[in-house]
Each structure stands twice: as structure tokens, then as C-alpha cells.
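Page 47, continued from p. 46.
Same chain as before, 154 aa.
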Amino acid sequence: MSYSKDHFTLSTKLTKAEVEEKISNGTLRRSSLLVEKTDKLFIGQINNQGFRIIGATPIASLCVARGVFKDANDITEIQVETSLHKPFLILFTCWFVVLTMVIVGFAIKNSEIISYISRFLILMFAATIFRLLLHLGYVRSRDNTISMIESIVA
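Result:
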């Protein structure tokens, strides 16, 4: 199941080497995608084939951008795939499991079917709201990341 995954194609008149250099200059190179304080725009990995980065700001860390550089005539295409950063998906899953256990535990303790149904509905509503907020954060992070990449390679 794919959560929050999008594809973009950016193009620039710069050469593949120039694009790689510009993105590299704006990226703090790290083997893991963990947020840390830096004056760079991105944190991640870059090589001559492409990149795997997150934004250096806390909200931008919700989105992982994977890009591939491709030469096409006089332009360079950057094919970018964005997805929700896995730690946030794991956090959502853990939160949902714990909340489910708490609500089911209280429902069993009270053993009233009406109480169980209402708590289940509250759980589903809360999970939906939390997932929508997580997706909203991802969309804002994705848009921010794509606009930063566009500004670098423009």
C-alpha cells in the first residue's frame, strides 16, 4: 500500500553535471535522513545518478524526495518521486495500535455493546483526522521541497 506518493518531472537548461553540483551545494550529505540544524536546504545523499533527500526544516522532513537526472536533447530532466518519510508512518501505526488497545480494553471492562460501538466510532474518527493531518503535513512538505528544488536548478 502506498501512502502519500507523488511523481514530478522538472526540466532545466543546465547540464546534468551542473544540476548535480547545484543540488549538492544545497545539501548536507548524510547517510541517514535525520533532521539536524544546518544552513543547507536539504539533508541526504547525492550521486551522479540522482539523489535521496529531505528538507532541512522540521516540516519539510515529512517528505522524502528521490530524484533521477536524465539528459534529453538540450535540457536535463529531473524525475522526482516524493513519499511520506517512514518514521512518520511508523509513528502513525504505533499511535493507532495503542489507541485501539486502550479503547478495546475499556470497552471490554465496561462490556456494554453501545459503549463499545461508540468508542470504536470515536477511534475511527480520531484515526481519520490524524491521518488527514499527517497527509496535510506531507503535502505542505512536498510542495516546499519541490519548490526548493525548482529554485536551485532554475
